[in-house]
Amino acid sequence: AAIPVPKGFCRNLCHRHQLFISFQDLGWHKWVIAPKGFMANYCHGDCPFSMTTYSNSSNYAFMQALMHRVDPKVPKAVCVPTKLSPISMLYQDSDKNVILRHYEDMVVDECGCG
Amino acid sequence: SEFQDYDFLQFLGLEKAPSPHRFQPVPRILRKIIRAREDAAASGASQDLCYVKELGVRGNLLQLLPDQGFFLNTQKPPQDGSCLQKVLYFNLSAIQEKGKLTLAQLTLDLGPRSYYHLRPELVVALSMVKDRGAWGRSHPALGRLLTQLSVPGPQGPLQFNLQGVAKDWNRNRLKNLDLYLEILVKEDRYSGVNVQRENACDRLVRSLHASLLVATLNPKRCHPSSRKRR
């Protein structure tokens, strides 16, 4: 389910798009005990020069945007994750084992021009 | 387009979606850990998920293995104080992470706490099994005694940290773990009545639930512990 972006936000600029995958929709609730779903957020949006001078963009994004203005053949800076977080899953396998497993860098918390 | 959950399962390290017949009881410790992690994720707090602070061990995978063993001498009435004898069997090859075993914790749940069955006092003895013998029939050849302790009554969970098992597993990837459990009734001249012992033993045979909680640490998935600079 796409979670709407707050009003007044420039939709086309680089930002985090939230997407929730419900394990119930996949039929996984029969073996996943917790959590109930998974945030499959992603980064998307434009990285104009002005964008690289604020928010959590990197310095080389600023330089790349500057060079793009001088020579359009230089690609623009791109919208990438700048903060990620792990998830843990508690589930049961087919052999009656109960497993708690964690996965690093699974959820996008923040995006920026990189 | 149809969500390719096959790819997602593979990514999660699963061959295919598990299809458990029914849910196993989830120990409180695992629920506590996952709830703490979900709360931390919701509050945006950073987490080191390669350290299980509730257990004080490093590990990125916790796995609860059910006991698949068998009782011995169930048809004979208990003799010389022995209440029950059981070979506990844990399939260690089911451990899904090929890292280092950092925890092997055996839990013996003697049954629900109640005010009615406060007696008799018990002695719980746990030994390694050298040779299991014929499955389900002959008495196994015992190895070293791991522990022997008195418990006030036939109820509640007991936990044993089997660090030696973890070392053996890391050294030579044991396929399974066999343990021999004997529970004896401590003679008590006041209770003295056999009926109480038999009731307690019958209840124990029905309610005993054994499980092995293991933690494994896969260095590929876990950066070396970033020890806080003092």
Describe it:
The complex is a heterodimer of chains A (114) and B (230). Chain A is mainly β. Chain A is 14% helix and 43% strand. In chain A, the strands form two sheets. In chain A, strands 1, 2, 4 and 5 form a four-stranded antiparallel sheet that branches. In chain B, 20% of the residues lie in helices and 34% in strands. In chain B, the strands form three sheets. A five-stranded antiparallel sheet of chain B has the order 4-5-10-7-8, covered by helices on one side. A four-stranded antiparallel sheet of chain B has the order 3-11-6-9, covered by helices on one side. The model of chain B has no long low-confidence stretch (mean pLDDT 82). At the A-B interface, β6 and β7 of A face α2 and β3 of B.
Notable characteristics:
heterodimer; A: 114 residues; mainly beta; four-stranded antiparallel beta sheet; three-stranded antiparallel beta sheet; 14% helix; 43% strand; elongated; B: 230 residues; alpha+beta; five-stranded antiparallel beta sheet; 4 helices; 20% helix; 34% strand; globular
